[in-house]
Amino acid sequence: MDEYDDFAMRRLCAAIVERAIEDHRTAITRNIINERTQPTKELNSREVELVNSLHWFFRCGGVELLLESAGFKISTEAIRRKIIEPISKQ
Question: N or C: which end of the chain has fewer CB within 10 A?
Fold first, then answer.
């Protein structure tokens, strides 16, 4: 890959992580999951799919795999702190 492909891949991976963080925070705010990405209530099929995806991504190594594949050399600790923050209502 050339430098433009590397840049595009890194931007795509960053956007995926940003979206997943937002989805996790929204799920916490809506009381669908707890801080450990476990369901807090009975879920409909769409919510089950979301929770399963978020659980795999944040608790089973998905975020680390994505960041590593894009060449990011960052710790996931800041990401893990951010995902448990509920979205504040302004």
Answer: C
